[in-house]
Structures are given as C-alpha cells and as structure tokens.
Amino acid sequence: MGNGQVTEPMRAGHSGSGLLTVAAVPIGRAEDASQRLGAELESADVIAAEDTRRLRRLAATLNVRITGRVVSYYDVIEARRAAELVTELQAGRDVLVVTDAGMPGISDPGYRLVAAAAAAGIRITAVPGPSAVTTALAVSGLPTDRFCFEGFPPRKTGERERRFADLAADARTQVFFESPRRLAATLAELCRSHGDDRAAVVCRELTKVHEEIRRGTLAELAAWAAPSAPGNPAHPAGASGASGASGSGRVRGEITLVVAGVARAAVKAAAREAAREARRAVRHQAGAGIIGDV
User: Fold this and answer.
1) Which residues contact 172 (CB under 8 A, 6 or more apart)?
2) For the domain 14-130, what is the CATH code?
3) Angle, vertex CA 141, rays to CA 139 and CA 144, nearest 5
4) Residue 275 half-sphere exposure toward CB, CA atoms < 13 A
C-alpha cells in the first residue's frame, strides 16, 4: 500500500457475498458514459436493466462485450426481482443495476433492491455519472445552494394541490420530472400555487440533439406550453411550423422542470409578520384577561 499505486476496490461484499453496483448511464449522449461504466458492464455476473434492449444498444455503442446474465428490472416487477437479485448476491455473484437513463433509484427502479441488499448486509457501491436532476439545476441559473427533488408530481388533483401548496412557501429551488403531456397543466397549477411571477426553467431533452432550455416566469412558460399556443403541435397552426420566441411550445421528449423557491426576503418578512401577529394576539389575550378581572 505504500508504493503509491491505486488498487482496485474489493469486489466482494460481507461474508463472501457479491457486490451490488448501481450505475448511472447517459441521459442522452452515449459518449457521456464513463470508462468505469464500460468496465462494469463487461465484468458483472448479472446485469439488471430497466430495458434490456436499450442496455444492449448502449453496450454496442460503447463497444462493450457483455458476458454476464442480463435480466429485466422495471417498476412492475421490481419488488419480486429485488428478492431474486439479493439471492444472487448472497451466492457470491456481482450484480450491476442500470436504468434507461440517469441513476437507478432516482425516479427509476433501484431503491427496493438497494434497501433489501443493505438489510442483508451486502456491500453496495455506485458508478457516479449523469443525472437529469443535477444537470437541469446546474443550467437553470436558479439558486443551487439549497434544493429539493420532487420527482413526478402526484397524478391525483387533490394530492397535487396539497403538494404544490406546501412547496409554494419553500425557499429551496424545486426540481420536478414531468410528462410532456401534463406539462401545460402542471405549469398552470404552479401558477395558482406559487404565483404567476415565480421564475422557472423548462429543460427538454437535456444533452440530446434537440435540447431546449426555456426560462421565464411560470405564467410565461404556462402560456408557451399550452396546447392553444401558436406553434404547439396541438394548436391548429402547429403543423405549419409557426415559430416565435413566445410561442414555440413544441413540448416533446424528456422534461425536467426547475422552479425557484420563494424569495428569502419574502420568507423572512412573512416570519417577522407572523411573529408580530403572535405578539399582538398575546397582548390582546392579556388585555382581555385584565379587563375580566376588574
């Protein structure tokens, strides 16, 4: 160890079990893959992939030869397959988990397997890499010192309204994933909860050929994304290729939405006002008590 050479990490987990590796894969461009990802794809005994066909296409693009067994690992079968993979790990086989894009467990399958492996005392490591969450945050131009990742907003209207109402007063920058079909409705709902003038950024097809990063207020972005916006494919004029900075709402592809937190000055002002109200209420109650004693 004293010769300055870097040694390979121990491949086995505790008590002779295999090693579980969760690996980030590119969110758009295959050339963003790390050399270590290629090496892990070649050496893993078992690869659990959200989409096995996409995995094989990625391996071919990277000129990587997969020698291990490939199994599917998507949301519908995640719980059952997690138990099977823990058995593989306990038998001493190394398991690699990959999703279609980004890091397993981040709005993608992976959490259940990691939790089960941790409970079984199996060693877990990760191949770091691309993530739409941090990529969108980095290019948004919004504060990055404090943020929260909310994944996909709830589908049910009542749950969405409650979630957005809670987040409206949060000072942290907020990152969401959203379907392009629901983006317009989500932006309109955020206008009602957060206010029309709250700053936000829609990141579409990050790192891909048709990447688009659109900044504005929630009201401006909601108008751009609305099906009735000129240039939107759902608009009667959409098929003609109408363009323009205010109406190019051809919302397709993978969407990551970044929304500014409530201004910190506003948070402090609200806190001061709440404190003043509390003091006034205490004085009023004290005054009422004194009058009642007379």
Assistant:
1) 146, 147, 148, 261
2) 3.40.1010.10
3) 90
4) 6
Residue boundaries of the structural domains of the chain: 14-130, 133-266
Domain range 133-266, CATH architecture: 2-Layer Sandwich (3.30)
36: closest CA among 47, 27, 23, 46?
23
How far from 185 is each of 175, 180, 256, CA to CA, in Å?
16, 10, 15
Number of Cβ within 10 Å of residue 53's Cβ equals 9
Q: Which amino acid is at 229?
A: A
What sign does the dihedral 24-184-211-199 (CA atoms) show? Answer: negative
Q: By the 8 A CB rule, do 256 and 151 touch?
A: no
Residue 200's beta-bridge partner residues? 216, 259
The tens digit of pLDDT for each residue in 126-180 reads: 999 999 999 999 999 999 999 999 999 999 989 999 999 999 999 999 999 999 9
Q: Are 94 and 85 in contact (CB under 8 A)?
A: no
Sorted by sequence, the CB contacts under 8 Å of residue 6 that are 6+ apart come out as none
Q: What is the pTM of this model?
A: 0.78
Q: Which secondary structure element, helix H or strand E, spans residue 267, and what is its range?
A: helix 264-293
Run of H or E including 126: strand 124-127
Pairing of strands 95-98, 199-204: unpaired
Q: Rounded distance, CA 230 to CA 3, Å?
A: 66
